[in-house]
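Take a record:
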Amino acid sequence: MPLLGAHMSIAGGYYKAVNAAATAGCDCVQLFTKNNNQWAGKPLTDKDCEAFKGALAEHGITHPISHDSYLINLGSPADELWKKSIDALVIELQRAEQLGIPYVVAHPGAFTTSSEEAGLQRIAAGLDEVHRQTPKIAAQVLLETTAGQGSNLGWRFEHLAEIIAQAADPDRLGVCFDTCHVFAAGYAMQDKKDYLATMRELDKTVGCDRVKAFHVNDSLKPQGSRVDRHAAIGEGEMGLEPFRHLMNDRRFKKVPMYLETPKGDRDGEDLDVINLRTLRSLVA
């Protein structure tokens, strides 16, 4: 059975995200380690970290993962924002390390007023500086596939491959594959042959072994729209088939997968519970 979980809120304490994951029937959990729309965050206390790790052990939740701040842009040509983004990503890795989280998911960045090539170089240089400042930290950055809105990079597998190739320490980088983003970026996944072709391309450019996490989300917008809008599993433009292929892909049976689908209730039942049940029902 695949390792399935969801992104959960840290409101009221980091351990609360783990408790919520357990209540929903998750195997794994994703969280922010601070407010994702602010640069600064309250320092983590030993109590925070102990309660979080204790909750993971108590509930048997594995593969905790964090997502970095949406303000970070390592692709920015503006020096002030670029340096601020480097500092912020260093802090994200430090916080993950304190909490015992092995991976921090990060959107690669947007080139804004420069060019695609300049943006990719800027991201690789930014990651090199982050790595220089965190030599003893085990937590790694996972570059997320994006939908490619605006000047966002990472919507082609080649973008991720180029960033990794340019990085001085590529072994400290992995990839997070977001199903909605890849579909919105234009990759086909509905038919089995299309899914296999997309995964072949991923393997050829980035390497399937570099994929350390999945975000499992359906897409509100059509294939190739380059618009990032998540939908419940099987209720968007993707339908159930891409998820059926993924749930039964033996290459990824030990890679954790996290829902980032809309939250709420339907007929008194938690939507995360419904989405997890749908995904598990697709396993052959």
Summary: The longest helix spans residues 79-99.
